[in-house]
């Protein structure tokens, strides 16, 4: 297990940070969150063509760069820090890993190169209106129709589902429940019977949609009825990646709070010298560093295919969610009255912290998952 980053990885981080500092300023975030698409097509092309970021976690065999979850974690940490508005998580994390885990060799060779190049924006649709983030919450049905299948039901909280050109869907055979009868399918964005609606959420920097399926034609991805294990693995990997993104945002908030505390003067001295502010700063540092440790360990476990991934993934997600939310609260308080205003940028990260806290499951849900996988 690696406990430090290599010089090459640190240089990669520095290069990526310079790029994002230029392309994802708070002004850019505000501009993009007001649009329906939620991302800048020119910046997306640069991310794909110049930096090759969607290809980082995809094996070279399928048109990717062949790196692992450690490098992917670095990318997401920096994106979370810059609050990048782009369909990266939906396409390069959720959809790509779902195809890698569930697809046949032929399907991987067909679908992944276009995701790696950024030519295709894809997403994963698995959660539904019941708000559950596990296989037990999947009610959408798949029915055999000729040489293919048709899907009926609805998917909600689909990340970038309104702009994705390829949708990976998890559905079940009618009459089954739990982990039985689950299968993965691919659906084209323009498929007949598919209705897409952008949802209004508190965090406008991350777009989610509701998809209604009415006898929508779909293609089976992988083996029928054997989707439970690939789904579980995909969600564990997604939790690890989301933890990396969250610690990046938490670190940005911590640094901005400290910078403001040193700048803000009261009674002839900076508020950073006040004991109460010192306590808040120390607590934030402790929580963010602990969350980083959990996220980095989980990323290495995912990269190694470790047996304890189902345990460390929910641990990292819960820890990062708590640290991010607390950093957001403390940063607002340290900024004082201005921290509550629209003109101050803190609320952008605050809202992302809240949406990330519940996306893929709340900290309480992930702690329950951790205990279920804890060795007897």
What does the model show?
The chain has 376 residues and is α+β, with helices and mostly antiparallel strands. It folds into three domains: 7-89 and 102-117, Acyl-CoA dehydrogenase/oxidase, N-terminal domain (Butyryl-Coa Dehydrogenase, subunit A, domain 1); 122-226, Butyryl-CoA Dehydrogenase, subunit A, domain 2 (Beta Barrel), CATH 2.40.110; 229-373, Butyryl-CoA Dehydrogenase, subunit A, domain 3. It has eleven helices and nine strands. The strands form two sheets. The protein has a five-stranded mixed beta barrel. A two-stranded antiparallel sheet has the order 8-9. A hairpin with a 2-residue loop joins strand 8 and strand 9 (269-270). It starts with 6 loop residues before the first helix and ends with a helix.
Order of helices and strands: HHHHHHEEEEEEEHEEHHHH
From the alpha carbons, calculate the radius of gyration and give it in angstroms. Answer: 21 Å
Label the CATH architecture of the largest domain: Up-down Bundle
The helix content, as a percent range, equals 40-55%
**Which range does the strand content fall in?**
15-25%
Q: How would you describe the shape?
A: globular
Mean pLDDT: 95
Task: Classify the secondary structure makeup into a structural class.
Answer: alpha+beta
CATH level 3 topology of the largest domain:
Butyryl-CoA Dehydrogenase, subunit A, domain 3
CATH homologous superfamily heading of the largest domain: Butyryl-CoA Dehydrogenase, subunit A, domain 3
- For the record, give the distance between the C-alpha atoms at the N and C termini, rounded to a whole number: 24 Å
Task: Report on the biggest sheet.
Answer: 5 strands, mixed, barrel
Total E-strand runs: 9
């Amino acid at each position: 297990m690696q406990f430090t980053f290599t010089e090459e990885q640190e240089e990669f981080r520095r290069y990526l940070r310079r790029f994002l500092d230029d392309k994802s300023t708070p002004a850019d975030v505000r501009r993009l969150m007001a649009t329906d698409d939620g991302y800048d097509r020119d910046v997306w092309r640069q991310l794909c063509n110049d930096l090759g970021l969607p290809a980082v976690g995809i094996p070279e065999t399928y048109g990717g760069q062949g790196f692992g979850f450690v490098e992917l974690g670095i990318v997401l940490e920096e994106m979370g820090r810059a609050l990048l508005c782009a369909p990266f998580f939906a396409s390069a994390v959720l959809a790509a890993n779902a195809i890698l885990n569930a697809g046949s060799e032929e399907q991987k060779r067909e679908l992944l190169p276009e995701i790696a190049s950024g030519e295709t924006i894809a997403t994963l649709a698995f959660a539904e209106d019941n708000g559950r983030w596990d296989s037990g919450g999947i009610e959408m049905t798949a029915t055999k129709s000729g040489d293919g299948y048709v899907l009926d039901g609805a998917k909600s909280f689909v990340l970038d589902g309104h702009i994705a050109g390829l949708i990976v869907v998890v559905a079940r055979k009618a009459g089954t429940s739990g982990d039985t009868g689950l299968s993965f399918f691919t659906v084209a964005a323009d498929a007949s019977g598919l209705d897409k609606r952008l949802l209004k959420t508190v965090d406008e920097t991350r777009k989610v949609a509701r998809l209604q399926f009415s006898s929508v034609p779909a293609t089976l991805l992988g083996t029928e009825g054997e989707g439970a294990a690939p789904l579980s693995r995909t969600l564990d990997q997604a939790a690890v990646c989301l933890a990396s993104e969250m610690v990046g945002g938490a670190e940005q908030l911590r640094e901005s709070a400290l910078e403001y505390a040193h700048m803000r003067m009261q009674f002839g001295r900076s508020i950073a010298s006040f004991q109460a502010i010192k306590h808040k700063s120390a607590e934030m540092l402790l929580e963010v560093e602990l969350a980083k440790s959990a996220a980095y360990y989980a990323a290495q476990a995912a990269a190694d295919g470790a047996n304890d991934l189902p345990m460390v993934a929910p641990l990292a997600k819960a820890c990062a969610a708590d640290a991010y939310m607390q950093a957001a609260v403390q940063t607002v308080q340290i900024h004082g009255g201005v921290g509550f205003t629209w003109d101050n940028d803190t609320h952008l990260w605050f809202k992302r912290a809240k949406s990330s806290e519940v996306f893929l499951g709340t900290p309480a849900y992930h702690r329950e998952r951790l205990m279920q996988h804890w060795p007897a």
